[in-house]
Write a structure and sequence with these properties.
411 residues; alpha+beta; Beta Polymerase, domain 2; eight-stranded mixed beta sheet; two-stranded parallel ribbon; 19 helices; 10 strands; 10% strand; mRNA processing; tRNA_ntf/polyA_polymerase_I
Length: 411
């Protein structure tokens, strides 16, 4: 990549101020710079600052190697066997991530040993320009230079920011084949930022969406969790449905209007500051399918409820290697919603109200009642019962009667 192609935006022509940057990140940037290393704020933090948003993290890029970074900071430790990074720890267990600029190696440089291949590819150090070219989208390849407070743009990311456009770096037909998860990330960023997908990017997703089924389940799982954490699960999965990606992304998830409407309600809950647990997200994903699996004409019992819950969420949990504890909680939340939907007055109602997962199940059922308003009176009735139950002391189990019958002596 030609160095002269970089666009340098001086401090007077952009909106980023050092006052907006985390103080500990500034300390790291300044120390690297004072010792003669290039020190840039990189990635999403630069993008967010230029958009007037508060970044979640402030990642740093440098030409110092991980071992050189460690020598500069006593509070530094190196992580990652395959992708070596420096983590610098500050008060409150805060970590600042420092990555050495990487580049894509030439084919002639690659080792013959397949096991060493991935490790080698991830740890070939390069220049800032080469590092920018390795990133996923142009808007994530902007750098803030602490030396002169300028913004460096190697790939046209500033123009894409101005035009609210999401564009893949390089040929999307190639980049999506290299890493199918980029397709999901493209939709995630476009929704989160309110950007439109650039034409070639959109067409490449349509053409290669089936490759999502070949992506590492652990990576797909993490991206799906991020959708819920950033309260964008509803709109992202809706767009995935429009692109017919769901069968390759979440096999078994039907993506109906009601199901996506429920996720949108859940997004509102998360946006209000209520943390989202993975078990709750899984139950929300499959609640409509679960509730509609019961025929109103049949008198379904708890055995049916348990069997249906297992049948619906087990394929998802097995595919994504979800821990048994999370799977158990998701199943119990579905069963709890089944009990709530049956109405009040069953024999074990008080014991059900005192179950530790019932409040969570009622939260989920209340969100569902906003999608199906005919359930709202029932949800309100359960809320009243829950409030009343909270004021009643929990009943302890009656102690077992001891048998004082005298033993008969035998001689």
């Amino acid at each position: 990549m030609d160095k002269n192609t970089a666009t340098i935006i001086p401090r007077s022509q952009h909106c980023i101020s050092r006052k907006q940057i985390d103080t500990d990140s500034l300390k790291v940037l300044n120390r690297l710079h004072r010792h003669g290393y290039k020190a840039y704020l990189v990635g999403g933090s630069v993008r967010d600052l230029l958009l007037g948003r508060q970044p979640k993290d402030f990642d740093i890029g440098t030409d110092a190697t991980p071992s050189q970074v460690r020598k500069l900071f006593r509070n530094c430790f190196l992580v990652g066997r395959r992708f070596r990074l420096a983590h610098i720890r500050f008060a409150g267990n805060k970590l600042i991530e420092v990555a050495t600029f990487r580049r894509q190696p030439e084919p002639s440089e690659l080792p013959d040993n397949e096991e060493e291949h991935f490790h080698f590819v991830q740890n070939v150090f390069g220049s800032p320009e080469e590092d920018a070219a390795r990133r996923d989208f142009t808007i994530n390849a902007l750098f803030y230079n602490i030396a002169d407070f300028s913004v460096i743009d190697f790939l046209g990311g500033l123009k894409d920011l101005e035009e609210k456009r999401l564009r893949v770096i390089g040929d999307p037909q190639v980049r999506f084949v290299e890493d199918p998860v980029r397709m999901l990330r493209a939709i995630e960023f476009s929704v989160r930022l309110g950007f439109t997908l650039e034409n070639n990017t959109y067409q490449a997703i349509e053409q290669h969406k089936e490759l999502l089924a070949t992506a590492a389940p652990a990576r797909v799982r993490e991206e799906i969790i991020e959708l819920f954490r950033h309260n964008i699960a509803g709109p992202v999965l809706k767009q995935c449905r429009e692109l017919n990606m769901l069968p390759h992304l979440l096999a078994g998830y039907p993506g109906t209007d009601e199901g996506i409407a429920l996720l949108a309600k859940l997004d509102q809950r998360t946006a209000a500051g209520i943390p989202i647990e993975e078990s709750f997200a899984i139950a929300a994903l499959y609640l409509r399918l679960y509730m509609d699996s019961f025929s109103p004409a049949q008198k379904n019992n708890m055995g049916d409820a348990l069997r249906q819950a297992n049948e619906i969420i087990t394929p998802h949990c097995r595919y994504f290697s979800i821990a048994s504890g999370i799977r158990h909680q998701a199943r119990e939340l579905l069963i709890g919603c089944f009990r709530l939907a049956r109405g009040r007055g069953f024999r074990a109602e008080n014991r059900f109200l005192q179950h530790p997962l019932t409040p969570k199940a009622l939260e989920l059922f209340s969100l569902w009642s906003q999608v199906r308003p005919e359930l709202m009176p029932l949800a309100e009735s359960w809320h009243t019962a829950m409030t009343t139950s909270a004021t009643i002391p929990k009943t302890s189990k009656r102690p077992r009667k001891r048998n004082f019958r005298k033993k008969v002596k035998t001689h």
